Amino acid sequence: MAENRPRRGGKKRKASAGNARDMLGEFVAGNVDRLQRLLDEIEVRDGPKAAFQAITDTIEYSVPKLARQEHTGEDGGPVTLVVQWLGDSAPATPKPSKPKTKQRKGRHQTGPGESEP
Fold this sequence. Notes:
Low-confidence stretches: none
Order of helices and strands: HHH
Number of helices: 3
Radius of gyration: 32 Å
């Protein structure tokens, strides 16, 4: 079980994506002032858009990209939610409300496509 033995001094760490992110994070944390000066120089020389692009290019290597997730129901259809009440505490079913319409006294109100009697 060579995996459980401690690493011998002087032996380099095996490169991996996780280690690279950790090392880049440590580098950024240790060089915040220097990086800020570099970003300020880029902004003066090339404008704020270039400075922002430099930040986003650097972040790309330290923060993992998230894949887009699409949720679908059975056979690619819509997602169906089923709600079940447990026990005797099911809420009362609300009564449907009637739409409120203003009607003038003595006149019939017509809807779209209807003519007055």
